[in-house]
Amino acid sequence: MDISIEKLNANNYSTWKEDVKVVLMEKGSWKIITEEEKVPDKLSGIEGEEVRTYQKLLKDYNLRKDRAYSVIYLSSEKEYRLLIAGIEDPVKAWKILEEHFRPDSRARAIGLTDEFFSCRVCPDEDIGIYAARLKHISTQLADCDKPIKDWYHAFQSIRYLPPDYAGIVQASPSMSG
User: Fold this and answer.
1) What PANTHER family would the database entry show (predicted)?
2) How many degrees, rounded to 5, is the angle at CA 164 between CA 159 and CA 166?
3) Out of 73, 88, 98, 124, which residue is the most buried by the measure of CB atoms under 10 Å away?
């Protein structure tokens, strides 16, 4: 499978993070990043076929771990590779990038909240694109531990729709009761 994602830059951490997660899932490496999967334990007293099985498991784990780091490193712009150069541990690399790009400041959360509630459908814009913009801002707010409740998301989704969509607004189940 040939996968192409936009390289990590100063403006796309939220979408980059999701794209890389999917790539790592496809490569069987995501659970290494989340630390749900650890280095296989070597049992004492194993021999023969058990040793070969363990060696195979360890080799597979290390290969997927190396792939995870490679994906993270190579999907970052060169200036941000410096943050993780020489580390080789994908879990540490992921956390370093997360700390660098995910400021949890109050000012950022307030700015994103304002951006969310100011978001309007642009002239000639597809409604799906508008919804995707709202979702992107909502994801960034969730990254700041300030998630938007479903009610407000539904409200903002229909708030500035053109008059052509009045029927949809009236029938919207997410705005009822």
Assistant:
1) CCHC-TYPE DOMAIN-CONTAINING PROTEIN, PTHR47481
2) 50
3) 73
